[in-house]
Amino acid sequence: MRESTGGKIFVIFIHVVLIIISLTCILPFLHLIALSISSGHAVDLGQVWFWPVGLDFTVYIYFFENTPALRAFTNSVIITLCGTALSMLATVLTAYPLSRRYLYARKPITTAALFTMLFSGGMIPTYLVMNSLHLTNTYWSLWFGGLISTYNMLIMKSYFESIPGEVAESAQIDGCGEVQLLMRIILPLSLPMLATLTLFYGVGYWNMFMSVILYINKTNLQNLTVIVQGMLQIQGNFNMSAMDMMQQQEMVSEKLKAVGVVVMVVPMLVVYPFLQKYFVKGIMLGSIKG
Amino acid sequence: MFGQTLAPKMKITLALGLSAVMAAGAAGCSQKEEGTEGQAEGKATITVSNYDRGNIPAAEGTVEDNRWTKWINEHSPVTAKFVPVARAEAVKKLNVLFASGSAPDIVNDYDTGFRNSLYQQKQLMPLDDYLQYAPEYQKLLEKYPQLRKIGTKPDGKLYEIGKINEPHLQSVAFIRMDWLKKLKLEVPKTTDELLVVLKAFVEQDPDGNGKKDTYGTNMSYTSDGMVDSMFGSYGWKISNDDKIIRTWDNTLESLKFKKRLFEEGLIDKDYLADKNGAKAKQDYLNGKIGVYLPPVVSNWFESTVTDVKTLRKIVPEAEIAPMAQPKSSMGQFVHHVVNPVQMTTVINAAAKNPKAAMEYINFIIKPENSLILKKGMEGEHWKKGADGFPKVIDPAKNAKELDWAMDYSMFYSIPENPLLISTTAFDMSDPDQKAGLDMLKKADEFLLNPEAQYPALSHYEHMPTLSSELVVINTNIDKEMKDIYTKGIIGGAPYTPEQAIVDAKAAWERGGGKQIEEFMNTWYKENKGRAFLGKDILELVRSQHK
Fold first, then answer.
1. For chain A, does the N or the C end have fewer beta carbons within 10 angstroms?
2. Which residues in chain B have Cβ-Cβ distances shorter than 8 Å to A263?
């Protein structure tokens, strides 16, 4: 069917809007990358926009040599990998039973889970719990603090529920137990959703901030977010810089901040394309025959 | 039917899953806590909070364990265990530590409101009985009675350890002397003269490029506070009948001046878009601003040497000088000053060994020890120069090994050790640095003008702390009034500054500002003798410059 002129204009209009929106997302980041690899002089004078002026990578070297960034980076990777694995495991193990209609007390358990979405213990009680369990200063405090995101769990649960009962039924007729059913039928069918939730959890753990500030009292366990946030915050606040008068190193340059943000964001950008292929894959292609 | 037969299996799976999670938790519990090593026999152990600014190279260790903590623990009479506190979230973190009963014995924090809240919650240890263990601090208290005055809380006991800061300006206006010379003008002495000069800077093409592309001055970010201080517009002042009142008159005059700056095109018309002052600074470094009002001068060396060098790369003939605050219709004021007496440190009421805590403080503030923590080891990080002052041997080495260690001696009074004062950073054999130091000295002299008053009721760190309800009221009204004032500046002819003041007053009344006024006056009546106000600040700073 041929589009009418009005339709064409509409499509062009949509494209323009989408391009503008994507530019507002991409350009600031390009600007930061350009800042991070331009010469400090050009940055001071505000000559850098989206293209680096006078290539200079020394700040990257400084960033990894003179700050705890490298150690923090490693920590971030550990927190993210283990945390995501643990969270996914726990979420699957919670969502799957709750998605089965024959689970005893299914409704009350779901309601209890929902309850935690609306009311939380609050900062200090949670800290007290962590402290009395001797979890502070270990990553377990980060992983257990939000092991299961109720929201993600509910997404997973309804996804499992959306898999036609006939699939499970036919498997069980063939003699498939619960564990096997989950591992061999349900999970392979849920790959797109699993990929999405893995990304959600991954980004969550990668960006984890407040819990690290609260529960981790040891510098060598801190993650990258805490380090980079510290760099961004300093000097941003007028009162603060006035208070810490003589601190030369307080004056973190715009360049160093840019490097911090770039280092922070790039790993997630790298991971995304690998998970993205699952998002576009068909969901239940050919799972039920006849 | 079908469901019922499977249910038991289901339960087993769920149980298995749960137990796997529990097992993981148990593994977490069994992780050993470290940190007992390095504890010499016989020494008392205390815990000390230390800012974590995320700037210690991984190779150097951590806030808790590095060459300087080792040095401290080797030489100090007590063993100190350090608790890192992220700088940006310090108050939140310390609050959680206090609430959970795991706060360190010695707490270092710059936030006055936070320390006051600790006092109100009875979390602080009164220090009077333990002062004998810190003779160095006792000496300081005798030399600067202000330290005791400010560190004493309403119950009459001493709770806070503080430090004396170097008596420099917190900010100063920098004026382009080469432009003045070119246009045959004088450094402006009054705000009216300032307007004339700024107009000339904008209209008479001082940079000689044939374009009208220069600004007179800047007002972005917090720089407009410099204009406010010319008029003593701070919010509060003491009236003639000795009460605390709002500075409506001063604010009106300041607003009128700002409106003229804006309407006559003497500042960047987009100044509100420059949220962090970066654009203004770039304009200044590109040689486009005649009178630069920096938001804050936190590092004099940078402002008077590094920045000037950058500027000269663009405009080789540029000449910069600090400018005293011009006299306004409301009188003569000085610039804001770095807080001369700054409280930094308190001791936890739950500290098991306050004597050891005081001994630790005493150890750190011995001038020879603070010299090491601030400048490093002689021969390794610095050597004595011809003038007798420490000279850095290798700045790159110091950046790696030393520059992050300053917070360990956060409560040290720099002016007490002549080897540490910041003016020694200027190398007199370098003409640029000598010029920089001259600028700093000239700026210091502005403080000595006997006619000039302090532009605020007090330094903000010495203002009384509002209760949390009043803070909410204050924040809301403040936001509303700021918007009104901004409208007064950019609103054109129909919205006059007078109208803005009328509206701001109405917003103040409506929002509950009277409660804050009452609180301020009650506070003033009760604390008149103890309060550290603007005149006390000037008096102390002036005495330091003599």
1. C
2. none
pLDDT of residue A178: 87
Whole-number Å distance between alpha carbons of B160 and B141: 12
How far away is chain B from the Cα of A280, in angstroms, using its nearest Cα? 31
Task: Provide the token pair at B367.
Answer: 């001038």
Do residues A283 and B442 touch, judged by C-beta distance below 8 A?
no
Q: Are A95 and A160 in contact (CB under 8 A)?
A: yes
Least CB–CB distance from B25: residue in A140, A214, A248: A140
B215-217/B289-292 β-pairing: parallel
Q: Determine the residue among A41, A53, A63, A66 to mutate to test chain B binding: the one whose Cβ has the most chain B Cβ atoms within 10 Å.
A: A66
R_g of chain B computed on alpha carbons? 28
Taking CB atoms and an 8 Å cutoff, what residues of chain A touch B100?
Answer: 124, 127-128, 131
Helix or strand (DSSP H, E) at B508? helix B497-510
**In this predicted structure, what is the pLDDT of residue A170?**
87
Strands in B234-307 per DSSP E: 236-238, 244-246, 289-292
Which positions ≥6 away from A77 have C-beta within 8 Å? A267
d(CA B546, CA B540): 10
- Residues of chain A in contact with residue B339, where contact means CB-CB under 8 angstroms, are 243
Contacts of B57 in chain A (CB under 8 A): 65-68
Low-confidence stretches of chain B (pLDDT < 50) are 1-40
Q: Please, are residues B216 and B199 in contact by the beta-carbon 8 Å criterion?
A: yes
- In terms of C-beta distances under 8 Å and separation of at least 24 residues, what long-range contacts does A98-103 make, across chains too? A98/A153, A98/A157, A99/A156, A99/A157, A99/A158, A99/A160, A99/A161, A100/B3, A100/B10, A101/B3, A102/B2, A102/B3, A102/B4, A102/B6, A102/B7, A102/B10, A103/B7, A103/B10, A103/B14
Q: B469: how many CB neighbours lie within 10 A of its CB?
A: 10
- The bridge status of strand B106-108 relative to strand B341-347 is antiparallel
Which tokens go with B431?
């003409």
CB-based contact A247 B100, cutoff 8 Å = no
How confident is the model over B247-257, as pLDDT tens digits?
A: 999 999 999 99
| Residue A284 CA, distance from chain mean position | 26
Query: Cα–Cα distance between B463 and B406 in angstroms, integer?
Result: 27
pTM as predicted: 0.81
3-state secondary structure of A244: coil
Give, to the nearest 10 degrees, the angle between helix A254-280 and helix A224-233: 140
| φ, ψ at B123 (rounded to 5°) | -95, 0
The one-letter amino acid code at A208 reads: M
DSSP state of A275: H
Contact B138/B148 with Cβ under 8 angstroms?
no
**Beta-carbon contacts below 8 Å between A and B:** 194
B292: which strand partners? B174
Report which of B217, B352, B347, B234 is spatially closest to residue B294, judged by C-alpha positions: B217
For an interface test with B, the pick among A172, A240, A246 (most B C-beta atoms closer than 10 Å) comes out as A246
Q: What's B302's DSSP letter?
A: I
pLDDT band at A280 (very low <50, low <70, confident <90, very high): low
Phi, psi of B544, rounded to the nearest 5 degrees: -70, -25
Residue B11 has a pLDDT of 45
Assign A247 a pLDDT band (cuts: 50, 70, 90): very low
| Beta strand extents in B294-419 (DSSP E only) | 320-323, 341-347, 382-384, 390-392
Q: How far is B453 from chain A (nearest CA, A)?
A: 21
Q: What is the pLDDT of residues B380-403, one digit of tens each?
A: 999 988 888 888 888 888 888 988
What type of residue is B83? V
Look up residue B419 and give its DSSP letter.
T
